[in-house]
Amino acid sequence: MKYIKFILAAVALISSTGAASANGRCGGNLGKCPSGTCCSKYGYCGTTEDYCGAGCQAKFGDCKSTKSKAKTTKKEKVTGFQYYDHCVNKKHWALTFDDGPYKYDLALLSLLRKLNVKATFFINGANVMDIKSSQAKEIIQTMNKDGHVIASHTWSHANIEEISKSELISEMTKLEDYIYKYIGKKPAFMRPPYGAGDGNNEIAKTLKSLGYTAACMWNVDTLDWDKTGNVDYALSVFKKYVNKNVGILSLNHNYYGDISEKTLLTLVEAEVKYMRSQGYTPVTMDKCLGLKAYQ
């Protein structure tokens, strides 16, 4: 009996303090980062200034100085390249998707056509679908034909803080070469996997030199990948930022482990219905930021 009480007490303690993160994510219901690591404002565990600096979530990790743990880069603005996490217009909403192309994308595009919504797709070259395939080519060309914006999420979904400059250049140019081959344009927008690189001058300078103007983050994370497209949870996050009266940049995924066509489409349709009811206009990233989508 004493043993059972001990177990129950331990469970209660974990519930009140947040269980340890097992997948590199943190914050909210995702749990805490491992000891000695920080929880970034975008909900990822790490030890560099990107994770431990501005926006670090002290409740879910260590936000103390990391000078002894990792080399940090002084955060300065790089003219012509910037990280963004919201739309300029307070009533604009940028609906964005990561990790495509994927097999449900044509159904998603059909739904967006029906809803008269334009979105932005941050795609990979070799993540869950081979961009060289005829299926990927059809999806990307349909995205472009329908008026959606196509942007970079790196070739292989690489953490851009953990690769060399030459590897970063390869990750970006290899993908953009295929995008150009399919639609005749190279993207000017990118989204770093894991939200990495914010404040890293060398990364910013490299991306700028390649023709990129914006790293597009988010202020609404639907956590569709973690909650299997749970509509109630996603809308609760939207509501939080709608009440703050800010332009919204939301994060959805074309793919996650247990995604289905139904969960994908149901969530997107619910988001569109809710945001329009709140007076928001769905826009692509170029209209969200007031910048050109392509180089």
Notes on the protein architecture:
Helices cover 36% and strands 14% of the residues. It has 9 helices and 11 strands. Strands 4, 5, 6, 9, 10 and 11 form a 6-stranded parallel sheet that branches. The protein has a 3-stranded parallel sheet with strand order 3-8-7, with no helix packed on it. A two-stranded antiparallel ribbon has the order 1-2. It is globular. The termini are far apart.
What is the approximate shape? globular
Task: Report the uncertain regions.
Answer: 1-17, 65-74
- Name of the level-1 CATH class of the largest domain: Alpha Beta
Class of secondary structure makeup: alpha/beta
Q: DSSP strand (E) fraction?
A: 5-15%
What integer is the average pLDDT? Answer: 88
Which superfamily, in CATH terms, is the homologous superfamily of the largest domain? Glycoside hydrolase/deacetylase
- The arrangement of helices and strands along the chain is HEEHEEHEHEHEHEEHEHEH
Say what the CATH topology of the largest domain is. TIM Barrel
The largest pleated sheet is described as:
6 strands, parallel
* Helical stretch tally: 9
In brief, what are we looking at here?
The chain is α/β, with parallel strands linked by helices and 295 residues long. Helices cover 36% and strands 14% of the residues. The chain folds into two domains: 18-72, Endochitinase-like (Wheat Germ Agglutinin (Isolectin 2), domain 1, 2-Layer Sandwich), CATH 3.30.60.10; 82-289, Glycoside hydrolase/deacetylase (TIM Barrel, Alpha-Beta Barrel), CATH 3.20.20.
